[in-house]
Specification:
five-stranded mixed beta sheet, transferase (chains A, B), homodimer, Methyltransferase, Cobalt-precorrin-4 Transmethylase, Domain 2, alpha/beta, EC 2.1.1.107 (chains A, B), Cobalt-precorrin-4 Transmethylase, domain 1, uroporphyrinogen-III C-methyltransferase (chains A, B), 21% strand, five-stranded parallel beta sheet, elongated
């Protein structure tokens, strides 16, 4: 009820996984109308070209690295919105999957500031598109679980419970603990469960690795794959052409040996 | 390896949850270039206006209702692609979440036909935007599970296992069994777990109900909510302003009684 006279507003805008043409038409319009653009470091840096009238402020946070404090980002959004400006807060992927949108929405509401949300494509979907697979091929599973390996209290997710669902697992922010999380999953899932890493999904820099769960951590390390990346695990990943090629290549190698 | 001379192609295109401005820029371009448009009945019917050069063929399938057989859709796509045409197969939400994209991709590959995939916004994300919440508010959960209640063999998902993950549940195609699935979830989750139904999420016809798990089925039925809708369950849903209002309204009512 406070600050009902605030005329500015904040748009939480999903920048999608990377390529600018994966933005929605609605996002493109909001960018064009932005006065202030707060850009996350997981978003494509070229997104500023779509907001020609905006003052651009670079903020961002990436697990373990130096980042702009959340409280400072909150204050910036509120300050400019209270000046009557249209603040567009750009977030990579979809703003409503990880990335602290929940806390930002709460704080803005408490300050009496109107919040719009513009959806987008999360990187797990782009990763599946790169692999040419459905996340939920019905021969394999009944759903997909998006989970962060980077928890607020630095604990681990309950990998056994997640594996027990039988859903495809799409693990975000897991690259710096890929060895431990795959080891945990191997306590429940079989060694030959199809698995993949897609780095920079949905961008020109996309790199993919498709293998089995028991080999995932080692092969990802050997290939030099790192953040930002999505780890995908489950039978549905076995539908990727790259998985079939890998199996054939392995078989050929075995025959030759 | 067969049919390497096929010059046509198929684009599996995600139409998003409803409003046309939730299409991606890439989807918009693909529609403009389409020769043949196969439109799902979960997609916004007005999408044809974005494909002025395409011959439009309406296909679709909705659980329990009459629908175009999958095999016929497959044959249509292959026939037109083999004629050298650009076939755009439109699917509601994101093509890679439910909706049989996996089977369509496999069949097209076997026929030697090139497949492009264009991502989009799935209705679960639009539902969260409508509610003004993050799907994964880190005070409440470490992820979100998208699951279909409509399984290939007509069995039920393992609700206990899904609830045990502690993730937000986004249940698709669950409205015709909302009483039984909420009853199953109540064996694991507490009665006052926040829960919501969002019908026609991300469209002008969006309708929302926010309540607790124990009241969800009855209130959804009383409100006349039906398919297509997303059912959202978990602590993160309690961040919705509508949940707070509901609690206050209930308290007020109790005081007055």
């Amino acid at each position: 009820m406070s600050n009902v006279n605030v005329k500015g507003k904040v748009t939480l805008l999903s920048a999608g996984p990377g390529d600018l043409d994966l933005l929605t038409l609605r996002a493109s319009k909001a960018l064009a109308a932005a006065d202030i653009l707060l850009v996350d470091d997981l978003a494509n840096a070229d997104i500023v070209t779509l907001a020609p009238n905006a003052r651009v402020i670079r903020v961002g946070k990436r697990g373990g690295c130096k980042s702009t404090p959340q409280a400072f980002i909150q204050r910036l959004m509120q300050r400019y919105a209270k000046k009557g400006l249209h603040v567009v807060r750009v977030k990579g992927g979809d703003a409503l999957l990880f990335g602290r949108a929940g806390e930002e929405i709460s704080a803005l509401r408490e300050a009496g500031i109107s919040v719009d949300i513009v959806n987008g494509v999360s990187s797990g979907f782009a990763a599946a598109a790169g692999l040419g697979i459905s996340l939920t091929h019905r021969d394999h599973c009944q759903g997909v679980t998006f989970v962060t390996a980077h928890m607020q209290d630095h604990s681990q997710p309950d990998w056994a419970a997640l594996a027990a669902t039988g859903t495809t697992l799409a693990i975000y922010m897991g690259m710096n603990r890929i060895a431990s999380l795959t080891a945990s999953l191997l306590e429940t899932l079989s060694a030959n469960t199809p698995a993949a890493v897609v780095q920079n999904a949905g961008s020109q820099q996309e790199r993919r690795l498709v293998t089995t769960l028991d080999r995932l951590a080692q092969e990802a390390t050997e290939a030099g794959l790192g953040s930002p990346a999505v780890i995908l695990i489950g039978g549905a990943i076995g539908e990727a052409v790259e998985f079939a090629k890998r199996v054939h290549a392995t078989e050929g190698f075995a025959h030759a040996a």
